[in-house]
Automatic annotation (TrEMBL):
Residues 7-142 form the Flagellin N-terminal domain. It is found in: Bacterial flagellum; Secreted. Its main location: other. InterPro entries: Flagell_FlgL (IPR013384), Flagellin (IPR001492), Flagellin_C (IPR046358), Flagellin_N (IPR001029). This is Flagellar hook-associated protein FlgL. The keyword Secreted applies. Belongs to the bacterial flagellin family. Pfam families: Flagellin_C, Flagellin_N.
Length: 400
């Protein structure tokens, strides 16, 4: 018959170990309740801790994307306002150009209109240099800290670049924060945006180009054509290589068509005069207004000079109208980006809610369950303490 012997020291050690285990369980449950998290140490649940850290990172990214969206939304709204103001200035310039095209105006009247056009140009330059309210220029591209536009003796130069900042506003969602000034104010289509007609500067007759346009895009082929007057009542159309495409007789107000293009000319062109029509080139809006003001201030004592001025004004009216359409197109693009930001805001909100719920399921404590568990653990701890006291009181002398 074997006898299990256990020393008093072993009994004490075993009891103490059990007591400490119960105390650790109580302490952990209490810490869970105080911190409201079950993931106190990575060793307790390595996979859960890694998952929670991933969710925390995703939530931090959403918060940064939210800040980005707020900043770019403010910048785009400020740009939209600037584009609206630029459009208003161009509308005023177009009204002034139409007003200046009246034959009843005196030289003083036109000089006054030219002065107002220069004021419009200055205001447009101020809009081009406008800030976004956060210390950055709206139209400097990606170059911060520079004033994008400068007027040097009537010639506007650009110190910005063509770059655009791409901003993350949501999970896999990006938006451009603005348009560079080179696209907004410098590279602006002229004419009707497709073609531009013009009278040669050296014309000696009083022919005036009234309109020009494309009648057949397939037949045109984007080539430049020129109408040459071989006599006061005879014209021919040649292409860039000098090849004659059409010829005909001229009467004031007649429409000349060839190669998918047409021009309407009034007045009496002189032999050797010419009118060109070409794919609409780009030009900065400041030069358009500068050239128009210069044309209004130039003397026009003869029919030839008056026809030259009328041609310049007519071309400027078309250029300004196309510039207005250009600003409207840019505003439409800004509106599309603002709409994308609103959509991204909804996506971020839904994603944030999903991540928060997942993180809560993973990390948050079920208070009722934890409180019940704590009560059981306290009971067990109390029992362990009583048992430990009983063991400590045992002695052989109690049997004597």
């Amino acid at each position: 018959m074997s006898v299990l012997r256990m020393s008093t020291a072993a009994l004490h050690a075993q009891g103490l170990q059990g007591l400490m285990q119960q105390q650790q369980k109580v302490a952990r449950t209490q810490q869970e309740l105080v911190s409201n998290t079950r993931l106190l140490r990575a060793a307790d649940n390595p996979a859960g801790m890694a998952r929670a850290q991933g969710l925390d990172h995703a939530l931090a990214s959403l918060q940064q994307q939210d800040r980005n969206a707020s900043l770019v939304q403010h910048r785009l709204r400020t740009q939209e306002s600037a584009l609206a103001d630029a459009g208003s200035q161009l509308d005023r310039a177009r009204q002034l150009a139409l007003q200046a095209n009246s034959g009843s105006l005196s030289a003083e009247d036109r000089a006054s209109i030219a002065a107002e056009l220069r004021a419009v140009r200055s205001e447009l330059l101020a809009i081009a240099n406008r800030e976004d309210g956060n210390g950055r220029r709206l139209f400097s591209g990606t170059r911060d800290g520079v004033i994008p536009f400068a007027d040097n003796a009537g010639v506007v130069t650009y110190a910005g670049d063509d770059g655009r900042n791409t901003i993350e506003i949501g999970p896999d969602q990006w938006v451009l924060d603005g348009d560079p000034g080179s696209e907004v104010f410098l590279r602006v289509r002229t004419g009707d945006g497709i073609v531009r007609g013009s009278a040669a500067a050296g014309n000696t007759g009083n022919g005036v180009l009234q309109s020009s346009g494309v009648t057949d895009h397939a037949a045109w082929g984007r080539q430049a054509l020129q109408v040459e007057f071989t006599a006061a009542d005879t014209w021919r159309v040649v292409d860039g290589a000098g090849t004659q495409l059409a010829t005909g007789t001229y009467a004031t107000g007649a429409t000349i068509s060839a190669g998918g293009l047409q021009l309407t000319i009034t007045g009496t062109p002189a032999p050797g005069d010419s009118f060109a029509i070409e794919p609409a080139p780009t030009r900065d809006v400041f030069s358009t207004l500068q050239n128009l003001a210069d044309a209004l201030e130039a003397p026009a004592a003869s029919d030839v000079e008056r026809a030259r001025r009328e041609n310049l004004i007519g071309a400027a009216v078309g250029d300004i109208a196309t510039a207005q359409d250009h600003m409207l197109g840019l505003r439409s693009g800004v509106g599309t980006r603002l709409s994308a930001i609103d959509t991204a805001d909804d996506v971020r909100g839904a994603t944030d809610l999903t991540l928060q719920e997942s993180l809560s399921d993973l990390r948050d404590v079920d208070v009722a369950e934890a409180a019940s568990r704590l009560a059981l653990q306290l009971t067990a701890l109390e029992a362990a303490q009583k048992t430990m006291l009983r063991v400590q009181g045992l002695s052989l002398f109690d049997r004597l």
